[in-house]
Design a protein that fits this description.
globular, single chain, about 375 residues
């Protein structure tokens, strides 16, 4: 096992009716900015519950944070925070709203051009406003981690940043608030969480059985519960298991002390920035083929994955590996997330644009062994056509 630091200060309020507990965790006397997306929280009742819970506070709103939140929109929220002297943020929505709120929290306190936060990937963050979240879409794990991804429309760049200063102070996870999600978003969320686990698990062995068993348990849970949630969207127990699974997939626990990959995410980010695909759609396109192209460097873990997760124990090694990858791709399809570029009206002619962006963003030696060159990325995308 590798040396590691593990730190996670986020308090989780899990279960039915927990939005009512916001006054217990929002600081007394706080001037609060509630940030949300396109307005679905007003249709499903979450907005009314949040505002009722915050009735004793000075509250303002900022709406319109996009899926794949943009720097340009978030800077409007930063201006509002500074102008109105607001001192606490509450993200109400999915991972994009929480990611965006992390940027606002850091940018509002940043001296100089906040775009530098993205340029330095958060290494230059020295202060941030406190914030919490009310999660409505389990997928990204942003509700319990220090990472964020923000898109700069002006240069078509989707950039990740992180800082211990942007952990949420708390997150409210009420599975009932996910009942009304469109099935497309439900499927996306399961695929997103699955890929997060794989980026930390599917590398090479370092004798870390605790992390491996945690990861495999989460993968098995998603495989078992994912189809159930599509069949019965108002099954509370299924929703609860998926919500907690997505949080644990990226709260730092399973990635402590093990190598991590993230090449699939970096290639996927370029597909989103260039062509507007959902984040989970890009992961479903890239991940199976990333495993196929890199099966030699991942052989030991792929065989372990085939055996422990998919119960594939017969046949030669290559056959077991290919069957496990095929089952993974089929699971994504089962969740309603297509796995080929052609499914999104993209052809081989899109690949050069992706590679050009990877090169311009210095994403030319990706992966846990830094061996995912532009040529490897090309092979992955060519297989995905």
């Amino acid at each position: 096992m590798l040396n590691f630091d593990f730190y996670n200060p986020t308090r989780i309020l899990f279960g039915k009716g927990r939005i009512a507990d916001l006054p217990k965790v929002v600081p007394a006397g706080a001037r609060v900015l509630v940030l949300y997306g396109g307005g679905s929280i007003k249709a499903n009742g979450v907005y009314d519950e949040v505002m009722a819970a915050l009735s004793g506070f000075a509250v303002q709103e900022f709406a319109g944070i996009e899926p794949n939140p943009t720097y340009e929109t978030l800077m409007q929220a930063v201006e509002q925070v500074r102008r109105e002297k607001l001192d606490f943020l509450l993200a109400v929505g999915g991972g994009s709203v929480i990611d965006g709120t992390k940027f606002v929290a850091a940018a509002a306190c940043f001296e100089g051009d906040p775009a530098a936060i993205l340029d330095k990937r958060g290494r230059n963050i020295t202060d941030a406003l406190p914030f919490g979240s009310v999660l409505t879409l389990p997928a990204t794990g942003s509700e319990m981690n220090e990472g964020s991804v923000v898109t700069r429309k002006s240069i078509k760049a989707k950039t990740a940043f992180s800082s211990p200063l942007v952990f949420p102070k708390f997150s409210v996870l009420d599975p009932t608030k996910t009942y009304t999600l469109p099935l497309r978003q439900v499927g996306n969320g399961v695929v997103d969480a699955f890929a997060h686990i794989m980026e930390q698990y599917m590398t090479y062995p370092v004798n870390a059985p605790v992390q491996d068993r945690f990861a495999e348990g989460l993968l098995l849970t998603l495989i078992e519960e994912g189809p159930k949630v599509l069949a019965n969207p108002e099954d509370y127990d299924v929703r609860a298991n998926i919500m907690w699974c997505a949080t644990l997939a990226l709260n730092g626990l399973i990635g402590a002390g093990v190598p991590q990959d993230w090449a699939t995410h970096m290639v996927g980010h370029e597909l989103t920035a260039l062509f507007g695909l959902d984040h989970a759609q890009t992961l479903a396109i890239v991940l199976p083929n990333m495993l196929r192209v890199r099966k030699e460097s991942k052989r030991a873990k792929l065989l372990q994955y085939a055996s422990r997760v998919w119960n594939i124990t017969e046949g030669n090694e290559d056959a077991r590996i290919e069957q496990a990858i095929d089952r993974t791709q089929a699971f994504f399809e089962q969740m309603g997330v297509k796995t080929r570029l052609a499914d999104y009206q993209l052809g081989a002619d899109s690949i050069d644009a992706v590679l050009k962006h990877l090169e311009s963003h210095r994403m030319v030696s990706l992966g846990e062994q830094r061996d995912v060159t532009l040529e490897v990325s090309r092979k992955v995308l060519e297989l995905a056509v």
